Amino acid sequence: MSAPSSQGIHTLLEAEKEASGIVAQAREYRVKRLNNARTDAIAEIETIQKRKAHDLEEIQKNSVNQEELASNIQKDTDEKMAAIKEQFEKKKADAVAKLVEAVVTADVDE
Fold first, then answer.
1. Which of 40, 47, 75, 93 has its CA 20 to 30 A from that of 65?
2. How many helices (H) and strands (E) would you count in the chain?
3. For the segment 12-62, what is each residue's pLDDT rounded down to a tens digit?
4. Could you give the CA distance from residue 11 to residue 3 in angstroms, rounded to a whole number?
5. Read out DSSP for 42-60?
6. How many CB atoms lie within 10 A of CB 38?
7. Residue 105 DSSP class
């Protein structure tokens, strides 16, 4: 083998070694980026889960408040209806008597 041939092989080997180093660096960089992306995605998922859990708690709290409000409205309505019926029963006889009196003692002036 001649010296230029030997030097050419040596140059090729160095170029291959340099290329292998560049490929190794690129792989390391890719792995780091994938790990960073995975970590960021996990953090974002946790943030979204916390926000959704908080939203769900608020919805459930409002649901309980609405059920309580509906119950209070129904109770108030029932109480008012009972009072109206009681007043009706108390005044029914007087109203009937006044109607009968008005019909019986009609003015015949016309």
1. 47
2. 1, 0
3. 999 999 999 999 999 999 999 999 999 999 999 999 999 999 999 988 888
4. 12
5. HHHHHHHHHHHHHHHHHHH
6. 10
7. T
